[in-house]
Structure formats: structure tokens, C-alpha cells
Amino acid sequence: MKKLTALAAAFAAAAAFTGCTEIAQEPGKSYAGKEDAKPYAGDQFKGDKAKWEASLAQRSQGQNDYLRMPSDKK
Amino acid sequence: MLLNRKSEGRAERANPLSRAMGALGAKTVDRRSFLKGSGITAGAAAFASQLPLNMIGEASAAPAAGGKIEVKRTVCTHCSVGCAVDAHVQNGVWIRQEPVFDSPLNLGAHCAKGASVREHGMTEHSHRLKSPMKLVDGKYRKITWEQAINEIGDKLLQIRKESGPDAVFWLGSSKHSNEQSYMFRKFVSMFGTNNMDHQARICHSTTVAGVANTWGYGAMTNSYNDLLNTKCMMFIGSNAAEAHPVSMLHALHAKETGAKMIVCDPRFTRTAAKADHYIRFRSGTDVPVLFGILYHIFKNGWEDQKYLNDRVFGMDKVREDVMKNWTPDKVTEASGVAEADIFRAAEMMAKNRPSTVIWCMGQTQHSIGNAMVRASCILQLALGNVGTSGGGTNIYRGHDNVQGATDVGPNPDSLPGYYGIVAGSWKHWCRVWGVDYEWMKSRFASQAMMEKPGMTLSRWIDGVTEKNELIDQENNLRAVVYWGHAPNSQTRGLEMKAAMEKVDLMVVVDPYPSASAVMPDRKEGVYLLPACTQFETSGSATASNRSLQWRDKVVEPLFESKPDHTIMYAFAKKFGFGAEFVKNIKLVKDKNGWDEPLVEDMLREINNGVWTIGYTGQSPERLKAHMRHMDAFDPKTLRCTKSVVDKETGYDLEGDYFGLPWPCYGNAKLKHPGTTNLYDTSKHVMDGGGNFRANFGISRDGVSLLAEDGSHSKGADITTGYPEFDHVLLKKLGWWSELTPEEQKEAEGKNWKNDLSGGIQRVVLKNHGCHPFGNAKARAVVWNFPDAIPKHREPIYSNRPDLVAKYPTHDDKKAFWRLPTLYKTAQQKAINDKVHEKFPIVLTSGRLVEYEGGGEETRSNAWLAELQQENFVEINPKDAQSRGIKYWDYVWVSSPTGARIKVRALVTERVGAGVSWIPFHFAGWWQGKDLLDKYPEGAAPIVRGESVNTITTYGYDSVTMMQETKTTLCQIERA
Amino acid sequence: MARMKFICDAERCIECNGCVTACKSEHEVPWGVNRRRLVTVNDGKPGERSISVACMHCTDAPCMAVCPVDCFYKTEDGIVLHDKDLCVGCGYCFYACPFGAPQFPQAGAFGLRGKMDKCTYCAGGPEENGSAEEYRKYGRNRLAEGKLPACAEMCSTKALLAGDAEVLTKIYRTRVVTRGKGEEIWGWSMAYGGSGKLADQPGGKA
């Protein structure tokens, strides 16, 4: 694991990444293609972003095995 | 190293990730990334280059307007974990699969196989066997189902008439549902023979025999989920990360919460990579390793003395044997493991209780497999680990329903439910089937043959080729039926080919042609019949933890395939016992007008007959309710602890364990919850509690075999050991009056195993909290086995003549499962011929995560096939260097049988010097030649390769006829 | 606002390839194109570790920077997608990508490179959400169905996680705290900048 981390650091240097914060790269900046619809735009969520986010949040917990199998160890 | 496919002259330019990974050391190439870069097969061109430039996929599963999407719940068919799958079906086409997060077994998780099961529903690029085929002048020709049933039926009837019913051998399947494997036992019985078997023979037969003879039942005692409650797990002979990947979700979760992990294996497996303590030992020396651990446990007083006194018979004799014969120097001499490593394992297991032992084919597939598995049981008994959550012997079964097929399916020595094949057993089952015992007897050559265990599938070839005067039945085998079974999973390929060529008739019933279609060089006398997969029918399957899950039918049978039970019924009619075969079972017409026995009725018949191991409470209604409410069960205990009412049936799941793991005693009305951890005295029997079984008499050498006072399941009215229950004992105890008059009528003269009213079980369990099978001690000494105390014996093909001299194998056996079986003669001949000098490398085999079993089905799945395109042998750098072998060279691997196979060389330290390993899923090549031309058109698997079993050698377990695949010898040279 | 990311937990990954076939099945990705794959170090030796790798949907995505036809865009959730109608298959993005994510299906008889294909985070592309056209070019749009990428949802040991960064780091944090190791998240500093340490992520602290 240590090696992998060191490796990750090496990539960062090699690729000359500098960002520490999220950099927005929204469509329109230098994007020449077709515009894409928002993921919550379709029939299912009808533009209701909050409902869509709630669905994703619930789905995320499917990946959390500690939810149904809590540890006694704190 | 390239991480993606080399193509279009970009091969020389590695991307930055691969460059940087390479910088970690030259040894980062692994088998998979290499394979991806190793060339594009013809298949690749067919798939990728026909697509328009901007597309990724064809539109076979594209969203279509209209057509309601139905969700069908099914279960992956590729291993015994039992991962649930939600199949999305539109217009009859399986378009998507979604994870079932609610499943307490897998929580939505899948390995490569599970995540790709939708491929089974695809008709484009399918490599399935699409219609019945007949071999005519060396080529497969399409025929109709009617022609197939008639021609095959006539031929089998002719053989039956001329040579008797025992002249046909039937290989059933662990991939059948419970209902199908149960019907297969009945079907072959009615044909008139016990010459039938299924994958369990070569999977866990030694486990079933060894473990059942130790404490009562031969199955996994706890569950995959119960690893969450363990404090230390020892894998010995199990590579769960590849063979049961989703079980690692529980193992690694447990490890995160503090459990220790030990892996003992001749190979540094992907499971070993996760271990706290890894022990590399000499293949075949499991007994020295396990008893070496036990030595330190006894020496340090770590054994559980009260437990041994109350619940175990004969440990004093084992102790004597271990302290005398398995001192650290002897353990090291035999196994090659240093004392400190063995001590550390002993200390970890003893000081982190409850601890569990996990094993698979690494322990079972030896000529002393029965002894190895018992050594594991003994270790767990000494530590007091059996019958407790977090402990137990967690024996991971292989196929998705190998547990169920073992429980209720085609075993050559037993009727469904381990009833045996003595007259009383036959009478019980004739009653359940609704047929006359005399009629049943008349189907067999004689009553003697009816009660003589059949041949095993590991040896059917000898039933064909052995001299007639040496076999224990009238005539040699003249026909073989491979019904859902790959031939390349059995050893001695060279001799198998000869047997396949010698029989009059070969029939293959399978969704794929399988290697059976191409192995023999025949011009005629082979038929291939397309069976459908479990996704094209419904039924229950028993996972390794004994939980039953019900599969919905996802899609209608594809192409011309039919469900196995429909095919069985068609043949039953042809053979003239159609009516008897389905006496209690409703028939429904399929779309072609064929009669299909109703699956639910088949399960009800199982419920009506299998009292011994508690397959009586799992009614179709209860199982279906469980599948609809998976979220109600706690993954740590598998129990539903609150009231959850199923709308469709009105059934309340409260108290049930998921899938009603057997034993689920009594009839469904009794509402026994199933048993998640066997022999657990801390619980009431109606809460899944229990104790060891009274199955070996009540005393031995003047010593009682019953449990001691105070050792009983919680709340039992009898607070000491007691024998199993029958009408006499009930009357003696004054409990008889608690049966209803109807129950009394049925139960008169019966016991807990053959009282079809269920009254005896009801009264014993519910009214008195006792266990129907009694309460006895587990046996550390199994006096009816060849080695009552497990003994190390060198394999038939050993690389150490000095150790053969000290630990020789058994004496030869004359009529063993109807065949003469060699031990000492074969071992001594190998020593005399100096086989270990000509073939100095130990050969062992195992699984890859992408493939299952013989591999035909999974090698026909493009998504899996792409990941493993060629067979290979793992060879240590030292052995490779001394032979001038470089990475991914073609090499010949040859064995003492005279056969040789051509595979790639994967040079790796995963195997130690002098050891090699080959995965067993490949077939379709024969000693260097691709057999593509021999397959029916369009039905060859995408990936073909040499089968390791082409070169494997003679050697069989001394109780069950398990084949010895895990330790043999070979030589490797550059091709 | 959500920021979609991947985490692969090297302590849990067992190299089972479930993620790979989940992706293949969900999008019917053709043979030879691998949107996701496994990388193993120290194969067969103590210290063996595996990582599942695909497009990481980088914060400052180098593929976007080098694309000569500007076919890349980033969604408001941080997912890097591209328009295949514009892509000319030049391969610059492949050279720029630190994860080897862009794939080029072979096209035509002369070994021409087809349009670039890569992991879409199961978010489709610039076609109508859930349409047949979107499916043919980019695969399923699970995100528009309120679901997460198939690879992560089906991971055998829940080693591969996908979703909003803050939620993920919380899930991951529980494990790290419980087992007491694995605080550095593989590939994160490379993809998203910063230290890659759990504690430095939003939601990564108690």
C-alpha cells in the first residue's frame, strides 16, 4: 500500500498537477460538442434534483457493509 | 506492461500508469494483464471491428419503447455462495441485471461470474447447443427432439434388455435444482440401477463421509455469514478469493473488525495475500500440518476439557497418537513447515476463540481425503469450536447446488436424504413416490443389485474397460449419459477417451456440447441434447450454508432447449414408467405441447419424504416469501427478528433463518425456523439449536456414546444424552398421547425418519425441546473407517520415496464401489519405476475466478472468456530457469500416464520450487491440437485449451473414491 | 452539489474482475475494449495488492486539456464525458491519461482507430438520457435512473466504491478507523489533487 501511495505521488508530480481544490470544467468552457441533458432531466425525476440526489444517496449505502453489519469495535 | 490491449502499432508506447507501475519492479506483470496484451483472437475481430465507428455495443439490449419491464429474482449458478440477482426482462428478453442489496448472503456483491450471468439469456453470439444433434459419419447433424428421444430410448432399452440395467452409467448434475436432482435419483432408480453419480463425488464426497461420521451431518456447520462472528479463521485447502469471491466480503469485513486470518496452502493464493499468517506446506500433508497444530494445543493445555468430556468421544486416543507421532520434527520432515509457523497458527486459533476452519478441494481430493477432513474436525473439537457461532467447520461447497444435489440427488449409495439403499430405505421412498416396492424391485437386476452401491463417476471409465471378471456386476458398462456434467473435471483423460470410444452409446444432456462432444474419436453413437439453464426454469437450490433459495424463471427456454425435468419425463414415458415417475406431480403443457412436471409439486414431494436432514419444512410458499423479503434478515445471524408478513401468502417470517437452512424439521406448519449453526446447544431446538447426533450406537467398548449430563440444547426436557426417537421411545416417555389420532395411526411402528405425519418430530421438538436424532457425542475416533484416527499416507504418486517408506498408502481393495482399486501396488510400482526422477515436479490444480468447473459454460461467455484466453501452468522461477523456460513460453507438461499437454508457462513465485499448478477449467484441446472442427457448428466455446485432467493420474480415496488431483507428479519442458 | 468519484480499497480488492464484467454486461462493451481493468503489484508474492482502474473523472482532466477537437466536457457532478460524434480517434487523450483509461476499438480493415471509448461513470453521453442512441454510443445511463456505476454496485468485497465524494469518504472512513490502516486512498491525489489522505477529504474526518 505504501508503494502504491508513493506511486500515486509520483504520478502527480509527473503529470505536473497543481490543483488542491476542485476545478470546474463545465461544458461550454472549451467544449465543442452537443449539449448533454442533466441526469435528473428524464422521465424518472422530471427535473427534481433533490429527489435524484436522495436516490443516489440511498444507493450509495448499498456499498456500505457496516450499515447492516455494524462493528462492535469502535 | 500494458494495461490494455496492444494494437495498431501502439504496443511500444506504454501509457504513464503502466510505466510507473513498471518502475515498482520488473515483476509487476501478472497473468491477466499479460493475457490482455497477448494478442487478439479471432473472436476479438468478430466482436469489435464490425461495429460502426462511434458505437460501443449492438442494440440487443437497447432500451426499447413499450414493453413493460418485469423484474425476476434469481440466483447466480456459478458457486455455492448463492448470490441473488434481479433480472430485468422486457418482451421476454433479459436486458439487464441489477444487484440485490437486500440479500443477506451477498448484499448485492458479485464476482466476475455473477456480474456476467445475463449472458445466459442472450441469443446473439450464443455458443449454446441449439438443437438436438446426432453424430453421423463423424459430423454432428441436427435432429428433432422426437427422433432423439426415440433413437436414444430404443438403444438404451436394447442395452438394458441385453446386458441389464446396470450396463448404463448416469452422470447427474450439481447444477440441477433440488427438484431436478431429486427427480434424477428417482428416474435412474426406476431405470433399475444405482450406477449414477454427480459432481459431489469429486468435490466434497470425502467431506460428507468424514464429517457426517464425526458428528452427524456432512455439511458446512455454520455459514459464510457467520465468519462475521469469528475471531480467527484458518483456510486450509481453500482459495476463497477465487473460488468463492463473495464469501471474502464477510471474511475481510471480519478481518477489519479484528478477526485473524491464517492461510495454509502449497500455493501463495490470492486468499493468502490477505492473510495475517501464511503457511506454505508440501502438497498432501494436511494431516501432519493439522496434527502439528493439535500437538501445540495439547502441549499447552489449550484444549477445551469440559467440552471434550461432555460432547466428544475418543479424544484421549487421538491425543496419544498426536503426542507420539506428530512431534514438531516429524511435522517438519513431512510437511516442510517450520515449528515456529505451526506454533503460531496453534496459538492464533487457541487464543482467538471462537475460531473456524475453512476447507475446500485442497483437503478433499486426495487418496486420504477422508482422513484429512477428519483431522480438521478433530482440531475444531479439541478447541471446543463446533456448535458455536463464529466457530465450526466452514466447508465451502463448489457448484451452486452441489449441497442440494448431495442431499436429495443422484448418489450411488443413497436415496434422497441420506437414507441409504437397504430394503427399509427403498420401502420408505416407494411409499413417498406412491409406487409398489415389489414393482420397484422388479426394475433392478436383483434385490442384491438394488442394495449394492453403484460405481462412482470418478471410476465409470473402469466400468467400461476393466476385465469383466474383476468387476462386481454382471456386465461391463455399455452406455454413458453425461447429464449436466463436464468430462474434463475427472482424472485420467487418456483412459477416459478410450472408454468413451469403447461404449456403444454416449448421450450428453447439457446447455453446451461440453468436452464430451469432442473428446472421443467416434464416427457415430453420440447424441447431444440441449437442456436449458436454471434461468430458463424455476426451482430451489441449496447454498453451501444449507439455505434454500427459490429461483424465478427469467426467460423461456432458449433455442430448442428444454428443462431437465421435462426431458426426464419424456424418457420416463419412453421407458414405460411415466406414470410411476410423476404419481404425485401435476403435469403442465409447455409451448410445444410437451409435458413439464410442476416444479412446486416436486419440492412438495421432497418435503414429504426427506425427514432425516429436515428438508420437510421448506415449502415452496415459505421459500418464495423469503425471496420477496430478503431485507428482513440480519446478515450477521441470518435471522428475521421482527414480524414481517408476506402479502401474497400471509406468511409471517418472524424467527426464520434466511432460506430455512436445513435441518428445517417437521412440516411447514410446525414453523421450525431452520438451523443456521449446527449442534449449537445454546439455543432451543425450535430456535435452530441442537447437539451432536446419536447415529453410531449408544455405547462403544463399554463407554457411553451419549452426551454427558447437563450437555443438551437449551430448554430440552431431557437434560442428558439420549438416543434417537421412535414410537417405542415416545411410548416409554409417555409422550405418545401427545400425537393426534391421525399422527398415531401413521407413526405406529415408525421413527423420526419415516413417520410421514411429522408427528414424532413435532412432539419431540415443540412439546419437549428435544432433538429428534438424539443427543450424543461427536466421534474423534471413527472406528468404521480405514484409519480410525486420521493417519498421514503419502499420495499414490509421491516425490518422496523416503516418506513413502514411512507413510505408505493403503492395501489394494478388491471390490470397492463395484471395482478393484489399487493402492500399494500402484504406489510401489511408481517407486520401482523411479517415476519421481522422471517426473520430479509436484502437479496440483485449482480454480480461476472467471471460470467454473469444466468451464464450458463460462468459456462460452465472451465477458469472461476475454479475461482468460489460454491455459497455463504456474512454475517457479527456479524450475523455469533450469529448463530454459521463459515467461509465457509454450511448454509441454507430461505425466506418468504417458499423456502430455501444451500450455503457457506462467513463471511465478506463487508456487514453490518443485511445484506446479494448472487451472482445471479448460478443454477443447487434445495433446497440442485444437478440436474446434469437432464441435457442432456455432457451439464451440470461445476459449479452448488443454485440460489438466488429460494428464492426471490414478489414485482414489479409501472411503469415497474421490479422485487424487491435488497431488501428483509431472515433468515440464519447453515446447 | 455532488462530486462523483471512485475509491478502490486495496485492502479489500481480491482481483475477482466482478467490476470488469459488470461493466461489460451493463454496456455490452465489445471484446478488446476495457473500460475497467485490474492492476496487480507483487503478483504471487507477499505484498500482493490489486486495484481496479478506470477513468477516474479527474478534477483537472488531462484528456480534456489535450483534445484537439474539444470533444470532452464535465458534468456538474464532476463526471468527464465526451462527444463521440466529434472524436477523431487521434489518441492524444490516451497519452495524456495517467490511468490508461481511453480505449480505441479497432475499426475497419486497415487497423484504423475508432472513436475513443471510456468509462462514462454509467452516465451515458450527450444524447437523450436513456435513449437507444445514447445506449449505442455510450452505454447505459444509470445515473439518470438514480443508480450508481454497475462496477462499484456489484463489487464482490465492496472494495470499489462510487458516489458523491463526501458520502464515499464517510463509508471508507468507517473501515479505516475500524481496521486501523489504509488511510491513503489510491489514485486520489493523482486524479483529484491534494494529498490523497482520507483526513484531508470532505467527510474524511470524524
How would the blueprint of this fold be written?
The complex is a heterotrimer of chains A (74), B (975) and C (206).
Chain A: H1 2-14, H2 49-60, H3 65-68
Chain B: H1 16-23, H2 31-37, H3 42-48, E1 69-75, E2 84-90, E3 93-99, E4 133-136, E5 139-142, H4 145-163, E6 168-171, H5 178-191, E7 196-197, H6 205-215, E8 232-236, H7 240-243, H8 247-256, E9 260-264, E10 277-279, H9 286-299, H10 305-311, E11 312-313, H11 315-325, H12 328-335, H13 339-351, E12 355-359, H14 361-364, H15 369-382, E13 393-395, H16 402-408, H17 423-433, H18 437-443, H19 447-450, H20 460-465, E14 479-483, H21 493-502, E15 505-510, E16 526-530, E17 539-542, E18 548-551, H22 564-575, H23 578-581, E19 587-589, E20 595-597, H24 599-609, H25 620-628, E21 699-700, E22 703-704, H26 727-733, H27 741-747, H28 759-767, E23 778-779, H29 801-806, E24 813-816, E25 819-821, H30 824-832, H31 835-838, E26 841-846, H32 856-859, H33 862-865, E27 872-875, H34 877-882, E28 890-894, E29 900-907, E30 915-919, E31 925-926, E32 929-930, E33 968-974
Chain C: E1 4-8, H1 18-27, E2 37-41, E3 49-53, H2 62-66, E4 72-74, E5 80-82, H3 92-96, E6 106-107, E7 112-113, H4 132-138, H5 150-153, E8 160-164, H6 165-179, H7 188-192
Antiparallel strand pairs in C: 1-8, 2-3, 4-5, 6-7
Can you characterise this structure?
The complex is a heterotrimer of chains A (74), B (975) and C (206). Helix content of chain A is 39%, strand content 0%. Chain A is mainly α and 74 residues long. A 7-stranded mixed sheet of chain B has the order 5-4-16-15-14-6-7, with helices on one face. Chain C has a single domain (4-162), classed as Alpha-Beta Plaits. Chain C is 25% helix and 15% strand. Chain C contains 7 helices and 8 strands; from the N terminus they run βαββαββαββααβαα. Chain C has helices spanning 18-27, 62-66, 92-96, 132-138, 150-153, 165-179, 188-192, and strands at residues 4-8, 37-41, 49-53, 72-74, 80-82, 106-107, 112-113, 160-164. In chain C, the strands form 4 sheets. Chain C has a two-stranded antiparallel ribbon. A two-stranded antiparallel ribbon of chain C has the order 2-3. The longest helix of chain C has 15 residues, at 165-179. At the B-C interface, α1, α2, α3, β3 and α8 of B face α1, β2, β6, β7 and α4 of C.
